[in-house]
Amino acid sequence: MNASIPLYNQTRYTREDLIQDISTRVDPVDLTTVLGAFEMAGSVHEYQLRNDSTPYFWHLSRVASIVIRELEYYNGDVISAALLHDVLEDSDIITAEVIKYNFNAYISYIVEVLTKNIHLLGVQRTQEDHAYIERLRFASVDCKIVKFAERLDNYRCLEFGVKRNPFRYIEETERDYYPMAEAEDNDMLRRIVEEMDSIKHKLFT
Questions:
Q1: At CA 121, angle to CA 88 and CA 181, rounded to 5?
Q2: Cβ contacts of 119 within 8 Å, gap of 6 or more
Q3: 55, 68, 84, 114: most buried by Cβ count inside 10 Å?
Q4: 174 SS3 class
Q5: In angstroms, rounded to a whole number, what is the distance separating the alpha carbons of residues 75 and 188?
C-alpha cells in the first residue's frame, strides 16, 4: 500500500475543494449558503470525535463530497443540509428556527427530518428510532439522498471501528432504509445502495 495515500476515514473535504467543485455550478447566493453551512457545521462539531478518533466534521464534509462528486447533485439546499444534518443533535444553541433564519426553510426541514433525540434510552429510544424511520419514509427524496450519503460514508468507515456493531448497522440499513430506495426508484439512491452492497461484500466475504 502506498503510504502517501491516507486511509478513507482520514480524509476530509475542504472548503477549497467545495468552492472549486461548485462555484461554477451553483449561483452566487447558493454558494454563499453552502459556505455558511460549512462554517456553521465546522463550528458546532469543532471538538467532537468519532469512535475512530477522527474529527466528526470530516464525516460531514465527506457526506457533502458524496452528494457533489459522486452523485453530481449540485443542489445548494441539499449540499447545505448534508453539512448541517447533525447540528441539531449536537448543539445546545442551534435550533431549527436558527437554521431557517440563517439559511432557508427547506434546509431547516431536511435537517429536522434527519434529527433524532440521541439521548433517550430503552423503550423510549426504540420508539424514537421507529418514529425517525417513519418520518424519513414520508419525507422528500432530498432527505433520503442526504441520509443515504451519510450511511454510505459510514459503510466506508466500518473497517475502522466507527460503529461498535457493524453487522447490526448493515442489518438496520438493509431492513429500514433499502425499502425507501426501492419505493423512490431514484437513480442516486440506487447507486448508493449498489455501492453499499459492494462494500458489504468486500468486508464480510
A1: 60
A2: none
A3: 84
A4: helix
A5: 13
Q: What is the DSSP string of 118-165?
A: TT--HHHHHHHHHHHHHHHHTS-HHHHHHHHHHHHHHHHHGGGTSSS-
pTM above 0.85, yes or no: yes
Q: Can you say how many angstroms the Cα of residue 14 is from the centroid of all Cα atoms in its chain?
A: 16
| pLDDT tens for the 205 residues of the chain, in order | 455 789 999 999 999 999 999 999 999 999 999 999 999 999 999 999 999 999 999 999 999 999 999 999 999 999 999 999 999 999 989 999 999 999 999 999 999 999 998 777 889 989 999 999 999 999 999 999 999 999 999 999 999 999 999 999 999 999 999 999 999 999 999 999 999 999 999 988 7
Report the interhelical angle of 141-157 vs 76-84 (nearest 10°).
50
Write the CB contacts of 111 (distance below 8 Å, at least 6 apart in sequence).
Answer: 81, 84, 85, 87, 88, 96, 99
Residue closest to 131 by CA, chosen among 141, 150, 145, 117? 117
| CA–CA distance, 63 with 48 (Å, rounded to integer) | 16
Alpha carbon 10 to its chain's center: 17
Cell of 3: 503510504
Distances, alpha carbon 149 to alpha carbons 1, 60, 123, 193, in Å: 27, 10, 28, 10
Domain 8-204 belongs to what architecture? Orthogonal Bundle (1.10)
